[in-house]
Structure prediction request, 165 residues.
Amino acid sequence: MNPGMQTAEAVTVGIVAVRRALDSPWADHDWRPHAVLEAPPDLPPGTRLGEEPGKQQFYLGAVELALHRKETESYRFNLASGEPRLYVALRHGDGPGGLPIFAFQVTAAPDEAQAWAEVGDDVVDGVAMPPVIAEWMKSFIERFHVDQPFIKRKRTPAALERGRR
Prediction:
């Protein structure tokens, strides 16, 4: 690979979350990612965007969405699903505008989102991918994707012997 060749690209996106009322003895509400905006709006983070019975939407602020050359297979899988998603991680803590949550990360790689969901208390969920982001991702894949052939490992005689025991 050419050392000067760019291997990652990033855009800044806006994150919208929804606070939903719950009918539960353990919690009265929860927070979920609701949307990723193709560009951050000219609003302060923490701004309430809308409300309907039992739900309020808030703009949480801007987060960088990065695409990496080595993740193109995961991006291809996401696009091939027919309903491409962006995966947003929300973290409990001091958020914008006094909210108890903030947008922590966003990715287009489903396997990366799965890893986030398996560790810690972050809220990780997929939301619809804006068409502009999908087109940018397709262009990135076309420029950087390299098919990797499947190579079956060959077991050594020692490994075969250990497997028989």
